[in-house]
From TrEMBL:
<dbReference type="GO" id="GO:0016881">
    <property type="term" value="F:acid-amino acid ligase activity"/>
</dbReference>
<dbReference type="InterPro" id="IPR013221">
    <property type="entry name" value="Mur_ligase_cen"/>
</dbReference>
<dbReference type="GO" id="GO:0005524">
    <property type="term" value="F:ATP binding"/>
</dbReference>
<keyword id="KW-0067">ATP-binding</keyword>
<dbReference type="InterPro" id="IPR036565">
    <property type="entry name" value="Mur-like_cat_sf"/>
</dbReference>
<dbReference type="Pfam" id="PF02875">
    <property type="entry name" value="Mur_ligase_C"/>
</dbReference>
<keyword id="KW-0547">Nucleotide-binding</keyword>
<dbReference type="InterPro" id="IPR051046">
    <property type="entry name" value="MurCDEF_CellWall_CoF430Synth"/>
</dbReference>
<protein>
    <submittedName>
        <fullName>UDP-N-acetylmuramoyl-tripeptide--D-alanyl-D-alanine ligase</fullName>
    </submittedName>
</protein>
<feature type="domain" description="Mur ligase central">
    <location>
        <begin position="119"/>
        <end position="305"/>
    </location>
</feature>
<dbReference type="InterPro" id="IPR004101">
    <property type="entry name" value="Mur_ligase_C"/>
</dbReference>
<feature type="domain" description="Mur ligase C-terminal">
    <location>
        <begin position="330"/>
        <end position="451"/>
    </location>
</feature>
<keyword id="KW-0436">Ligase</keyword>
<dbReference type="InterPro" id="IPR036615">
    <property type="entry name" value="Mur_ligase_C_dom_sf"/>
</dbReference>
<dbReference type="Pfam" id="PF08245">
    <property type="entry name" value="Mur_ligase_M"/>
</dbReference>
Length: 470
């Protein structure tokens, strides 16, 4: 269904009273159509409420943009002489702008009392959110994260797109370090939380895996001990999160372990993935036009969340069957010399890389399987060990040719060569010569997995050259 992406119109006078603010200059007789944080967001329209923190420098460029879009209203804890009441600007002073901001957010969520789903996990967030949105938007108005633009500073912008016509909010909550998920949840105040999986990642800020696990567990706090938590029962790291003090409802989904929402009889092909959903004492045949067991987990999480939002299983399964593959998510393309290129360059972390290698092994069975892998970033002190573990996975899943690019990825190549003499390994730290080496391995019986982060420009350009250009 179509949706109007703007906040509910509010009266500035009511906002000032809510925040116990003092009118310094300008008029409070104004309708507010949008709200932003001055140092985080771009002001796009007039009649915008702007939260300005005295702990942050005032950008002259942003201030001029605000003047061009006047009238606007500023909520600030700056001293009165630090912010000028220029023509068209209303200045309202509060004791602590951060407290005022959270009070505004809480009040807005009370006005918009619709169900909100927050989705987190090391990987699968974007696909799960896209699947759930696809299921629900057939008959409902849904506000959702755009692509994987899920950083904490975006959460307030998404919240401000919810209005009277919105039925559900479905958001993925990205995590770069401790406190990020807590902030997301303070803004969204979700009713349903989903954790898809937890693997090693973001150790640059979380420092240790235990720190990363604790950061993911902030979801429980975010649900305020009263929401519904949906967990992957097969994930060994999720099981490490203590639920002793959690007073909300917990439901599990799984493939291997027993649960009340389980995917079985999985069949993977180039067309997609079929499975049987066991739920409510019944069996439901299901199909997802996505390749790999990991997408069954994403589908299960989406279907279970849809149930919590009131959708029936049959409708959810029907909608999943028409789900469109997200670009660069294990996307099969024609390649040079008649080969098949598997473009999985949306992102890379150890969990998603392992699943990609596993899926390459399955769909390329009986063919030559080539893995072209780049560095995995944000692993901190564990980087070397994690890359070596990937080298073991490459051999375990029977990959025939391994080509790596980057100094960190060299550890993948070194470990794979140590594990087996049967695998052909080509490590590169320069892009020079890689084209020729790869082309020598490409023919009609070859599947090539390209897995790297989108920011790796040399590999992204190489990936493009490998695709059929005739």
């Amino acid at each position: 269904m179509s949706r109007r992406n703007e906040m509910i119109t509010l009266k500035l006078m009511d906002i000032r009273r809510l925040l116990n603010g003092r009118l310094v200059s300008g008029s409070e007789n104004m309708d507010i159509h949008d709200a932003i944080i001055f140092h985080q967001h771009k002001l796009k329209k007039s009649h915008t409420l702007v939260f300005m923190d005295k702990r942050k420098a005032i950008s002259e460029k942003k201030w001029k943009r605000m003047l061009r879009n006047a009238p606007c209203a500023v909520i600030t804890d700056h001293d009165q002489d630090a912010v000028n009441g220029d023509e068209g600007l209303t200045i309202i002073q509060v004791g602590n702008v951060r407290e005022a901001f959270m009070k505004f957010v809480t009040d807005y969520r009370k006005i918009c009392s619709l169900p909100i789903v927050a989705i987190t996990g090391t990987c699968g967030k974007t696909t799960t959110r896209e699947m759930l949105t696809h299921i629900m938007e057939e008959n409902h108005s849904v506000t959702s994260t755009e692509w994987n633009d899920n950083a904490p500073h975006r959460s307030f912008e998404y919240l401000m797109k919810i209005n009277e016509s919105t039925d559900f909010g479905i958001f993925e909550t990205g995590l770069g370090g401790p406190g990020d998920l807590r902030y997301h949840c303070k803004v969204y105040q979700p009713d349903i939380g989903v954790i898809t999986n937890i693997g090693s990642y973001h150790l640059d800020r979380c420092k240790t895996f235990e720190g990363y696990l604790a950061a993911k567990a902030e979801m429980l706090e975010g649900l305020q001990n009263k929401g519904t938590l949906l967990l992957n029962a097969d994930d060994p790291n999720i099981s490490k999160i203590s639920l002793e003090e959690y007073k909300g409802t917990v439901h599990y989904f799984s493939i291997h372990k027993h649960s009340d929402f389980r995917g079985t009889s999985i069949s993977i092909s180039e067309e997609g993935t079929r499975f049987i959903l066991q739920a409510n004492g019944k069996e439901y045949p299901a199909f997802i036009p996505e390749i790999g067991e990991h997408h069954v987990y994403n589908g299960l999480a989406a279907l279970r969340a849809a149930m919590e939002l009131g959708e029936d299983i049959e409708t959810g399964i029907r909608r999943l069957s028409s789900f469109k593959n997200i670009e660069r998510h294990f996307e099969l393309c024609k390649g040079r010399n008649g080969s098949i290129i598997i473009d999985d360059t949306w992102n890379v972390n150890p969990t998603s890389l392992r699943e990609a290698i596993k899926t390459l092994s399955i769909i390329g069975k009986g063919k030559k399987r080539v893995a072209l892998l780049g560095n995995i970033e944000r692993l901190g002190a564990e980087s070397k060990d994690v890359h070596k573990q990937i080298g073991k996975y490459v051999v375990e899943f029977g990959i025939d040719v391994l080509i790596t690019y980057g100094k960190k990825a060299q550890y993948i190549a070194e470990q794979a060569a140590m594990e087996s003499q049967d695998i052909i390994v080509h490590p590169f730290t320069s892009i020079k010569g890689m084209d020729k080496t790869i082309l020598n391995h490409l023919d009609e019986d070859t599947y090539v997995l390209v897995k790297c982060r989108a920011g790796s420009r040399p590999l992204m350009r190489l990936r493009k050259r490998l695709m059929e250009s005739e």
